[in-house]
Structure formats: structure tokens, C-alpha cells
């Protein structure tokens, strides 16, 4: 029985924890939102799946500070800006054999994680699963998804494949990637265009796509992502990237969806992940002598909007 | 008796027209808003001055297409994007001796006007007067102001000074400027920072000033204004410009004011003057080989916001 801690059990973390426990693993959901942890421990995790009666799933939950037992696997699912704090808090859970899997959106996370454990035990990836947190202790699931995963250290390939097995056995449709950094950059570039612009301009994806400026804006952002990606050995072709993003403007695709950064900033007045998307590109571009004025300005404007909307 | 047409009789045009007629000139207010023209011709121009009973001022008003008589002086007071259309419409009013005065906000207007009459008859300036259009045929006046004016053609200095006299005799506190292009750029730079950012970020000036990003944003915009101004022989020092703008964040100054671009875009869902502020800097910068990515992006973002908010 694999002992798995979900470090950051919002919507996505709870989904993964629920599915991994259902597959027979020993799972604990860790989260800093006390009311959420308490609701799960009192009533179970409420899982709403379209067309089914809500499930009440008994699954242990805890504040990250309240668990000290070494885990086999830890899956990181915090918001980007909470990652460092979470890693500091869960030090007691990380033993010499503990595998840590990072499925966060955004750029630069492996660098952060490497400060807390050896590369051989770090695995990074992306997921296309979705989930909604409906209230404390309650998630709503719909649609299907997948996971792409790779080892950070070259000699940890077998361990990565074992993790892929673990996730797939729980129905999470994981597969081993030979170029996960490309996938991470590609997803970050989607988020760094659609999420950032929809948040800044207060619109949904279809509305953005209907403006005559959309292509110009996307091109300016993507060109800089591509230039900085190249400095990390990632071949993010602007034309291919645009061809990948443009269809998402179709209202029958994700079009009428307000991206998560819009939800965070405009709807809930919460800090955004901008520093791990456009902000990362601007920061690394500056460090490496690549002009990134567009991503720099978008990052500043989103931070200004945070300053205006988030109550002190 | 000097025959004066106000070409564009919104709040500011009506103020100037009212004051010039009161000083004994023969004034006609031209405007494309039919209800406004009709209200003035039916009830007079209603002039609200703080602490006084409203005045009903009999003053002729007309659609620009309805007047054909050559004028001594035409004062342009349209929105920037209506200037070309107005100049085309009022061709019959412009004789060989007609002096045309441009007091519009924004950059690049002399270039436009030169396509319609000889330089010797063109005079440009700025004004610090304010006025509000409260409804059709109704303006509200408060505070004091001034006008700075200069000839475009070197040999028209005396004509400019005569116009200064004309305005000052009507209480408009005009003075002759020896470097009006500097003043125009300086005012455009204030508008291109405060107006554009407050419109884009949906905040007032004091709120913008309270964010920790304000200085960074202003500096990025002002640096490019300065570089492009230099190509026109205008010495707009970034440090001096910032020192001029920063005090405006003080809530006791203009701080709690929503600038006109915010009113246009966010409150009334109307097109903005961005192409004559940041957009001019981006366009001329590109033509002249000066990098202006910040003003380019701000222009694109404001146009995107227009596309999102203005009903087709």
C-alpha cells in the first residue's frame, strides 16, 4: 500500500487524492484551509460527479503542520506562490526515498523544489484534468484528462515510470514524457496569453478572441515566451504555439470559460500566478539578456490590478 | 466684431464659445450632436456656475454641415478622432484669412490640420480650463484655467499674439508661448500615463498612486515619450516629467478624479483618444526606429478594452 500525501488539496489535489485512495492507496489530503480540512474530517469529502448522487468519501485530511510521517509519494498541488511555504512545512514527510511529484501550472518550480530534496526524487509534469472546489470539503468533477510526467534526474527514469503506473492504476491516464519541459512551457504559454489577458481585460476567452487585437497581443507575448524558452533548450515555435492557442477562442471549445486567473483576480480578488507565467519570462529574459518588455508590462499591470482589488 | 466658430462644442467648446460671446464677439457653436444643438437653439445654452443660479445664454448653434459662412477664427475643440471629419465638413468656413486654433489634447494634430489650410493660419496650444457637459445644451463650469498658444509658421507670431489678446479679453487667461510643442508633449505625457492607466485598470488617480507599481509603470511609459519627443526637438526629461506627475497622485490634488479616458471607456463605453497619446508615441517611435513596446502594448490593450465594451 503506497503512502501518498497530497500537498495542497484544493480542487485538483482533492480529485487526485480521491482517485488514488479509491485505487487502494493510503492517502492523506494536506491543506492550509482549516475549514476545508475540518469539513473533510467531519463529513468526508463530498464528490459531485455530473449525473450522479453526491458521494461522501471518508479520506483523512490534515493541516500540513499536523502530519510528520514519512511518505512514499508526495504530490504537490498548491498554488504556485504557496509552493515554497508548503515545501518548508512538509520537510518531516520527506524521507530519502520519498518521490515528490510537481503538477503545478507555471514555470520555475523544479528550481524551487531542488532546494528541498535531491533531484533524483523530483518528478515534474502537467495535467489536463480539471476540478472545481464548490465549498469547504466539496469538489465537483466533470470531463476527462491526462497526466504527463518525467524525471528531473536522468537516472530516475524507472522511478518516473513507476509513478506513471501508480497514477494510471487510479484512472488518471498518466504517460511517461520524454520532453515534459516542452509540455510545461507550452501550457504556461497558453496560460500566459489567455489567462493573463482575460484577467487583465476582464473578459472570457471567446470575448478576447472576437477582438481584432487578439492576434497582435498573443503574438507579442508568445514571441518572448519562445525566445526565453530557447535559453532552456525548449523549442517553442511561435507559429505552432499560435496555431495551438487560436482554436481555443472557439466558443465550442474553452471559449466561454473565464480562466482561473480571471476567477482569482476579478471574481475573488486573490493574488494571481502571474509571476510564474509572464513574470517568469520577464525575469529570466532580463537575467539572460533577452528583451521581454511585453511580459514585463503585463506582469506589472496584473500586479497593479491585484494591488487595486485585494484588500489589505 | 470677430466672427468665431467653435468646431466641436462639447463642454470645453461651449465654455469658450460662451465666454467669447460674452466678450462681444459673434460666436456660433458647431456640433454633430443634434439634440445638443437643438436644445441650445430652443432654450439657450444652460450655464451652471457653482453658487449661482443657472444662466440661459442665447447663442447660435448649428450642425457643422449647416453653416457655410467664412469665419475670422475657428477654434477646434472636437475629440481627437473627430478632427479630420470636422475639418472636412467645415471647409466652406475657412477663407484665406481664417485663423484656425487647435486646443485639442493629444499629439499629431498640427500635421492633420496642415492638410486643410496653410501653416500661416494654424495656431496650436493647450488649455488648463475644465468644463462638464451635464446634458444636451447644458454645461457646468468651475475653477479657473489658462491657455498657451503659439503660431505654427514662424512668420505668424503677430497673428498668434492677436489671438492671445482675443482670448484674454474674454477672460480666458491666454498667453503667448515660445515653446508650445513642449507644453503639448508634457500634457500628452500626463494624459498618456494617468489617463491611459486609470482607464485600463479601472481606477482613479489616487488609487493608481497608492499601488507600489505606479512608479515602475510611469517610468516605462515616460521614457518612451521622452525618446520620441526628442525626435521632434522636444526636450522632455523623464525625471522632470515624473516629478511633475507624481504630485497629482495626492488625493488633495486631482487624486480622486477619474480621468476623461476612464469616463469615456469604462463609464460611457466610448472610443478613447489613446491613438493620439500612447498610440502616437508607438507609431512615430516605430517609424523613427525607436523601441516603444510599452506604449504599443498599452495602446493595444486599451483598443482591446474598447472592442470588449463598445457596442457594435
From TrEMBL, chains A, B:
Gene Ontology, cellular component aspect: cytoplasm
Keyword hit for NADP: yes
GO process terms (BP): pantothenate biosynthetic process
Biochemical pathway: Cofactor biosynthesis; (R)-pantothenate biosynthesis; (R)-pantoate from 3-methyl-2-oxobutanoate: step 2/2
Key word Acyltransferase present: no
Keyword entries, A-Z: NADP, Oxidoreductase, Pantothenate biosynthesis
Ranges of residues in domain Ketopantoate reductase C-terminal: 183-306
Domain Ketopantoate reductase N-terminal, first and last residues per copy: 4-152
Enzyme category, top tier: oxidoreductase
Catalytic activity: (R)-pantoate + NADP(+) = 2-dehydropantoate + NADPH + H(+)
Pfam families: ApbA (PF02558), ApbA_C (PF08546)
Listed EC numbers: 1.1.1.169
One example GO MF annotation: NADP binding
Family, per entry: Belongs to the ketopantoate reductase family.
Reported function: Catalyzes the NADPH-dependent reduction of ketopantoate into pantoic acid.
Record-given protein name: 2-dehydropantoate 2-reductase
